[in-house]
Write a structure and sequence with these properties.
The protein has nine helices and 16 strands. It has 331 residues and is an alpha/beta fold. It has a domain of 148 residues: Dihydrodipicolinate Reductase, domain 2 (2-Layer Sandwich). Strand 1, helix 2 and strand 2 form a beta-alpha-beta unit. The longest helix has 19 residues. 36% of the residues are buried.
């Protein structure tokens, strides 16, 4: 991801001052490939102490982020930090990091890209137009995409689209943790979940093991549905005729107006560049501290619920206090 961020920074004209890595071989290769001075991470305090920078991008895995953030926010004058997700490894780290950001008056960005993706922009437009009535639920039929790795993005997309955080979660996780593509020391969860925001809009996500292809999302409105193949980019909208909208919701087989469209392909570098731009330049809306906290609390609540008989679990800090110190093995 460090290379993705570097390519993204090029596209928006921001200079990379220096890079750091725990692996000397990786650091040397990065310096050679990009012509950027790159150092062992142990040299971070010394070098950043005398060479001012405007912003920091944390493209590391989760275990090292909290320690790095603690140093950056206490000893440096910086304007912004953009982090990969999941943001940290425990609720304690999340709470402490958010306090540090607020105290240091530093913008926190998280690399959630929902608000910049065409598919979510389209759904946002449909919701705002009210052409299909109210949004009642979102069904995501996924694959084994990982709770922390990718469902965290879905949580943020739901918050962005509905303008409201998930407040209750029920988790139905598969037995055993799944190996992560980022290395043998990292694990993630598969399974399914049900989330709900304060307005009662529901989110269903199936990310079970054994499902190995594609991601599709169905948005259920009062008068229609929007179905999106997230990877192919195909969108299908079906809706009631205008004269039928006052009829009972039990009349579900009335004639439909149908619209199909194809979204243009999007690449990771371009989407990442949009996130960086929004954070670095302090645009009015960017995936910041609220996005980081919401997605992290939601994935933790899913685990807690599943471990407690899939009972409804609040996503509030207070309700998860007994699990505050628990460290999770995601990347």
């Amino acid at each position: 991801m460090g290379e993705v961020h570097t390519e993204a920074l090029k596209t928006i004209g921001l200079e990379v001052s220096m890079g750091f890595d725990v692996d000397r071989g990786v650091a040397d290769a990065y310096s050679r490939d990009y012509g950027i001075p790159t150092y062992d991470v142990s040299e971070l305090p010394k070098l950043l102490g005398y060479r001012p920078v405007d912003g920091i991008i944390l493209a590391t895995t989760a275990p090292s982020r909290f320690q790095t953030l603690s140093f950056l926010l206490q000893d440096l004058q910086i304007k912004w930090v953009l982090s990969e997700k999941p943001f940290v490894s425990s609720l304690y780290q999340l709470s402490t990091a958010l306090e540090l950001f607020a105290k240091a008056n530093v913008r926190l960005g998280i690399n959630h890209q929902a608000m910049f993706k065409q598919s979510y922009k389209k759904i946002y437009e449909v919701i705002a137009s009210e052409e299909l009535g109210s949004l009642h639920s979102v069904n995501v039929s996924g694959a084994n995409i990982g709770l922390a790795n990718n469902v965290s993005h879905i949580f943020e997309a739901f918050r962005y689209l509905t303008g409201s955080e998930i407040v209750l979660v029920r988790g139905f996780l598969d037995a055993g943790l799944r190996a992560s593509h980022r290395g043998p020391s990292f694990k993630d969860y598969s399974g399914s979940l049900l989330g709900e925001n304060v307005e009662g809009v529901k989110l269903f996500v199936d990310f079970s093991s054994g499902i190995g292809h594609g991601i599709s999302s169905t948005y259920n409105f009062s008068w229609g549905k929007v179905v999106i193949d997230e990877l192919v980019g195909h969108v299908r909208i079906t809706k009631r005729l205008p004269q039928d909208r006052s009829l009972s919701d039990s009349k579900y087989s009335l004639q439909s107006l149908v619209e199909n469209m194809q979204l243009e392909p999007e690449d990771l570098v371009s989407l990442t560049a949009e996130v960086i731009r929004s954070v670095a330049f302090g645009e009015p809306s960017f995936p910041g501290a609220a996005a980081a906290a919401h997605s992290f609390r939601s994935i933790v609540a899913t685990v807690i619920s599943s471990e407690n008989g899939s009972r409804s679990q609040s996503t509030s800090f207070q309700s998860m206090r007994p699990f505050f110190e628990r460290t999770f093995p995601w990347s």
